[in-house]
Amino acid sequence: MPLNLKVVDTIVPQYESGPLADAMKNFKKISYEDKENNAGVLIGEFTDGIDGGQIVLTQYIVPASGRTYTFTISYNKDSYDNGGKEMVQKIIDSFKVNAK
Fold it and tell me: What percent of the chain has pLDDT above 90?
């Protein structure tokens, strides 16, 4: 199993029922897509535990040189559906890890 899938298999249960579950109510994994260089993108959706809004979470996972790099971008669902998805893709496309 690729490292990024192991990371996803660890992260998703934490979002669903771990310490973050109160802040990220009803988390559900929408998709996971492999990217080049053994990287991957996890997309999930949850209800904000404070204000009840719907949130879309995108997490980019990049294993490199024995380390795993992640970054997470969250948008409220309306913003994600109205330009946020495209912005997230631009950010992911611009992200580079220079392994030494």
Answer: 47
